[in-house]
Design brief:
The chain has 186 residues and is mostly helical. Helix content is 80%, strand content 0%.
């Protein structure tokens, strides 16, 4: 007859049944959030530098690259990883609500990503000297910046949809009792 401590048996059971999925999702979430911090906090600190032709012309190639590969893909990666994590935390109770919230969040992040990528490509094309002469490009940048609301529709729609999805995910986490209420409120 062998005697094992309860902690040894529990840790052995957890290591056998814990898949790598949540760890990979957490890593993707951290990388996605870090990409967004680099994009919005360091590289793109001004929300609307779009009316400045000289500034955009100086960073034309970098402008669309950062928008597409860091801003857009970082947002979708972070939303997808968060949806996976919430679904794993709500594996039994509230799983269907977590799945709905995750899908809505990913849809919102995708809309946001389309808007960000479109903005990056549009303004990069406008300041490309092979596309437009500098005087025509400066007036086109001014015209688009004066009426930027149309190009911002998918961005702000995506933010709103992702916020609704995030709220549904919070309700799923509360309902599943996977996290303490004080953490969800914070």
């Amino acid at each position: 007859m062998s005697v094992t401590s309860p902690t040894t048996a529990t840790s052995a059971q957890r290591s056998d049944t814990t898949p790598a999925g949540p760890v990979v999702a957490l890593a993707a979430l951290v990388l996605g959030v870090a990409a967004r911090l680099v994009f919005f906090g360091i590289w793109h600190p001004d929300w609307f530098p779009l009316g400045n032709y000289e500034r955009l012309a100086a960073i034309g190639e970098q402008w669309w690259t950062m928008h597409v590969f860091v801003g857009a893909l970082g947002t979708v990666a972070a939303a997808t990883a968060l949806a996976v994590l919430v679904s794993r935390l709500c594996a039994t109770r509230g799983a269907w609500l977590a799945a709905i919230g995750g899908a809505v969040s990913i849809l919102g992040a995708t809309l946001f990503a389309v808007g960000i990528a479109g903005e990056g490509v549009l303004y990069a094309a406008l300041v490309d000297p092979d596309v437009l002469a500098p005087t025509a490009a400066a007036s086109a940048v001014d015209a688009f910046a004066a009426d930027a609301a149309l190009s911002e529709i998918p961005i702000f729609t995506g933010v709103a949809v992702a916020a609704v999805g995030g709220l549904v995910q919070l309700v799923a986490l509360w309902w599943s009792r996977a996290l303490p209420l004080w953490l969800l409120v914070a």
